[in-house]
Amino acid sequence: MTLRNQVLIWIAFLVVLILLLWLFRGIMLPFVVGAALAYLLNPLVNQLQRWHFSRGWATAVVLLSVITIFVGLFFMFVPLVGQQIIGLLQRLPGYVSDLQGLITEWSPSINEWLGPERAAQFQTSINDLARQALGFIATLPAELVNIGYTGAAVIGVTILTPVVAFYLLLEWEGMVRGLQGLLPRDHKPEINGILSDIDKSMAGVIRGQGGVLLIDAVYYATALSLIGLNFGLAVGLISGLLSFVPFMGFAFGFSLSIGIALVQFWPNYWMVVAVAAIFMVWQFIEGNILYPKLVGSSININPVWLMFALLAFGALFGFVGLLLAVPLAAIVGVLVRYGVSKYKASSLYLGHNGGLIVPEHNGDTNDTTSAP
Questions:
Q1: CB contact at 8 A, 213 and 244
Q2: Which distant-in-sequence residues (6+ apart) come within 8 Å of 265 by Cβ?
């Protein structure tokens, strides 16, 4: 089979896969979450097997342990967090009005600093932003109701996800052997190398980035609560959980926390500085220590392309697309890097001489030497 035919077959396979995902996007959530959970827990099941557990018992023990932990955390934290989120939504219009009042109070200083014309533009921009925020807050309850209707499937997802994860974990080794049996024999080592790179990227996404996300949520919630910020627990958890979108968790948490701190603590500006320091210091630690240790270079995707993938998959597949965007972007990154390496090793890049330097003739007509 020619290279062109192989490329066409893989492109057709990719198109069919995307079409199937789009057609079944409404029912994909429990299967996506279940597959991610199975992938995450498979190393624990393998470890229990090494301790002479059968695959079935190992799967049951691991999955039941995880479900017990999740249920315990749900009943422990959800009532408190839910109360804070509801209180925050109710209080947000008041915070916006209070911030407008502070800006009006600071108007003389702003005029002196920026000049009358720029100060007027600044105040207009702040008022527009406040109106947009209030409009968003006004429509938020309706949006939550809509989520409740479309997500009445939450009960179904809660039941289906562990079932999907259980059967995938039970048959994981069989599925891997089946996939290995389908690989073309001539290209099996090369394809296994690509699959190994994809596995490393997926581990970085699901295990590494998932760990970073949870640590972010715990840190922000704890630090903001300890400093006494109103609704600090809710703001911190939301900021941490939004960290799967590059910079969104930081930008959301920083903006909302500074706004609340200005209203709550002013004129004690040192408390506002302390709230800002919580985010700035942690952003440095996450970017230079936490993220490299837990994720490393396994994803190796430019943040701009990652944000594009999130927007594109979110527009195509909704919430399921947001869950799939980062793993699929990691897979595409591996395939693109492999394609670039093959291209650079091909005659299309190296030229007809394969990159070898052809020795120049020295003018001797009897010299018939040519490059191999």
A1: yes
A2: 271, 272
Structure tokens at 266: 């002013």
Q: For helices 269-285 and 210-226, what crossing angle results, to 10°?
A: 160
User: Cα(first)–Cα(last) distance of the chain, in Å?
Assistant: 27
pLDDT confidence of residue 223: 92
CB count, 10 Å around CB of 180?
12
Does residue 121 contact residue 111 with C-beta atoms inside 8 Å? no
Q: Which residue ranges in the chain fall short of pLDDT 50?
A: 144-145, 147-149, 151-152, 355-358, 361, 363-372
Question: SS3 for 101?
Answer: helix
Tokens of 139: 């429509």
As a whole number of Å, the CA-based R_g of the chain is 27
Handedness of CA 55, 56, 58, 63 (dihedral sign): positive
Collapsing DSSP to helix, strand or coil, 2 comes out as coil
Residue for token digits 């994981």? 172
Amino acid at 203: A
Q: How far apart are CA 77 and CA 301, in angstroms?
A: 34
What is the pLDDT of the chain when averaged over all its residues?
A: 76
* C-alpha–C-alpha distance, residues 368 and 215, integer Å: 70
Q: How is 293-322 classified by DSSP, letter by letter?
A: HHTTTSS---HHHHHHHHHHHHHHHTHHHH
Bond into 267 cis (ω within 30) = yes
Query: Within 13 A of 116's CA, how many CA atoms are on the CB side?
Result: 0
Longest Cα–Cα distance of the chain, Å, equals 94
Nearest CA to 253 among 274, 271, 278, 290? 278
Exposure on the CB side of residue 347, measured as CA atoms within 13 A: 3
> Which two tokens mark 359?
């020795």
- This prediction's pTM: 0.68
